[in-house]
Amino acid sequence: MSAMFANPFGSNDSSMQAIGEDEETHHTTGVTGGPTTHAVKDSNYNLGRRTSVSAESINPAEADNENWQPPVFPKNDTQKERLRNAISPNFLFSNLEEAQLNQLLNALQEKPIPAKGIKVINQGESGDYFYVVEKGSFDVHINKSGHLEPGTEGMGDRVASIGAGGSFGELALMYNTPRAATVISSEPSTIWQLDRVTFRRILMTSAYQRRQMYEAFLAEVPLLEGLTDYERSKIADALHTEKYGSNHTIIKEGDPGENFFFLESGEAEVYKQGTDKPVHHYKKGDYFGELALLENKPRAASVISKTDVKLASLSKEGFQRLMGPVEELMRRNDPSRHPEGVDPLTKG
Fold first, then answer.
1. CA dist., res. 311 & res. 313, Å (int)
2. pLDDT value of position 161
3. pTM for the complete prediction?
């Protein structure tokens, strides 16, 4: 979802009922519900609104089907490159493994929007697709009644716009809620659509597996051994994966402290200006960057990857919100409090 507005496409009310599996892609539906064969004529792009309702779990592990295969829409090299460029800035895809990313690229279907004024999503309807904007722009409208109404004012107030690289429609698919906004093209555009089932299989399964992986990793971090499973799970949900090759500067001396890091794999070294040799060494399970956040001081050393590394990054806001239970332990472990060393990552 675009960061320009907050959650206009659904809510996390898990009590909402899910939508059935049947999907049609050869018809569009007008505001009144009547099917047509020309989206432009109706100024409405919605494809095959589903009318059946059935229960569906949000947990992808509860819906495993070994026979399921993601759809594949053939693309030439130019299309693949355009699509990869379109989704690369989107945070939803930042933690996908390469195999999952390729599945998603193959499953996305290109849909040209040839004119201004074509509705892609209608507020109040069920959600069939998630959309990524490659080019063009869309306006987001919300009617206080909770659904699209007839007439020139039926879409309600314009609350935001979404441009190239943005996305919309995910919350209705994740939580099985009706669309909470109407999205309409403001110029000729190109979007890529991902059907609901594939979205849940790839993105939600990825998030579920990622959380399990992080919970297992955090359980082995000595700093966090005193936390409850629930406390570790909250940290796991807030972590962001970062991967770098060798000789990459992870933290730069003099920069403000914006992130806290766990080293998932690989090795890194700490360097201070004026010294040729590393002053500290990090390995799997180590953490760094905490003291600059605790003391609100700039970094006093650089951390450079010695090998390929995989990091679990926690933002400053997440650190302050979630790491309170181990703050005193981190302060006790501060090397600057001991005569034998000075903390390399925060200025005294």
1. 6
2. 92
3. 0.56
